[in-house]
Amino acid sequence: MYSIIRDSVPMEYDNDENTWRRPSSAKVERSACHQIPRRSTTVAVVVLGLAVLSCLLGYCVLSETLPYESKTLRLVIIIFRHGARTPVNTYNSDPYKNYQWPDGLGGLTNVGKLQLYELGKKYRSYYANFIPEEYCEKDVFVRSSDKSRCMMSAYTFLAGLYPPSERQMWHPDIPWQPIPVHSLPKSLDNIVASTKPCKVWQAMYDETLAERNADPKYVELFDYLSKHTNQSMRSILPIDFLYSTLMCEQEAGLKLPEWTKTVFPGKMRTPFMESLAALAYNETMQRFYSGPLLKEIKQYFDAASEHESLDRSLLVYSGHDVTLVSLWRALGRAELLEPEYGASLVLELHEDVEQEAFFVKTFFRNNTKVEVPMELKLPFCDDPCTYSQFSTHIAKIIPDDWEAECGNTDK
Ligand SMILES: *[C@@H]1O[C@H](CO)[C@@H](O)[C@H](O)[C@H]1NC(C)=O
Ligand SMILES: *[C@@H]1O[C@H](CO)[C@@H](O)[C@H](O)[C@H]1NC(C)=O
Ligand SMILES: *[C@@H]1O[C@H](CO)[C@@H](O)[C@H](O)[C@H]1NC(C)=O
């Protein structure tokens, strides 16, 4: 509704203010950036009022318009998987080996772009009381895996999260504003994509894979898939790739070969999820794989809980299915997980002023359509989970010196 109203009145350039505005509109007060994020009840009342009003107008999607009301919220960390993509690779007998994917291999599709845009909008309304309406550099930090589909997902997420305010409109036809997304190159990224080489972890991962692959329950499936794909499928890792490829082809409306019917997704799902889980199988491996991300998260939480001047109140990470699965495991969850496109995990830091204590809440959204997030109870924490319990557990999974523990510094 907002954009329709916006579009119906032509904008003019205001040379004094260096911005586009509608001729009728009052001058916008300068820089909401310097204000403390609003957490007042008046905002909640206004938003609730708007929700009721939109109901009367027939736009009643209450769960979507009702924001998450919390005066105790201090810091929010959102970690999501990129949106729908094309296959990353093919297999020997793939009838679609030479299929021309318009978005290239491993590319974010339009469906994927829209998913993350919708997710950004969902979080905007969910945290309407907490995330300031105007984008301001000091409020938010966004870090992405360097993979194009993750960077692009981060950008469309931000388009949904931070539509430009009137003051921030810099072009009359483009209701979008640039927001920086930071990333480390693949060979240096041990935070989001966890692709930076780590010798000790690699040896543990190889060992874990070998153990999983030796499970007799897989013998029949390995034989069947090797025969039909015309390539070696004697490990859960190639099954993981095959599973993802078949999933993408199916979503693109391509008819899968007959032989897939008895195994996909069905029998292939568990080895697929085990392959994702193998990267951070136990606590030692989580130290290497998710430790640097947890370290960054802990630094922000520590600063907030020590009342240091907080320069960010929102952190966003754009990653992969394995980013979510590894973090899920590091948070003590043992269930195997298949994160959908745009699935997201949220960590919230709350302050109970009366008790003078900080608490952590964790939520998971299976996909970008979820209206009510699933609260995750952390097995190492009471309920509510105090920050001191949380940080004691997290500290165990954070390496003191990642490079040294990885054996990367050995001569
Ligand atoms: C299987 O692979 C071999 C070599 O890679 C190839 O010569 C053969 O044509 C393939 N068979 C099928 C059914 O794709
Ligand atoms: C985790 O798994 C690796 C590989 O199997 C193993 O070397 C390591 O000792 C395990 N750590 C724990 C805490 O079980
Ligand atoms: C997410 O999916 C799991 C099963 O995979 C289900 O138990 C859970 O209720 C779902 N949560 C939400 C928030 O949809």
TrEMBL record:
Family matches, as Pfam families: His_Phos_2 (PF00328)
Keyword terms, alphabetized: Membrane, Transmembrane, Transmembrane helix
Keyword field contains Transmembrane: yes
Cited PROSITE patterns: HIS_ACID_PHOSPHAT_1
Superkingdom of this protein's organism: Eukaryota
Catalytic activity field: a phosphate monoester + H2O = an alcohol + phosphate
Residues spanning the membrane: 40-59
Gene3D superfamilies attached to this UniProt entry: Phosphoglycerate mutase-like
InterPro entries: Acid_Pase_AS (IPR033379), His_Pase_clade-2 (IPR000560), His_PPase_superfam (IPR029033), Histidine_acid_phosphatase (IPR050645)
A GO molecular function held by the record: acid phosphatase activity
Similarity section: Belongs to the histidine acid phosphatase family.
The name this protein goes by in its record: Prostatic acid phosphatase-like isoform X1
Gene: LOC113492846
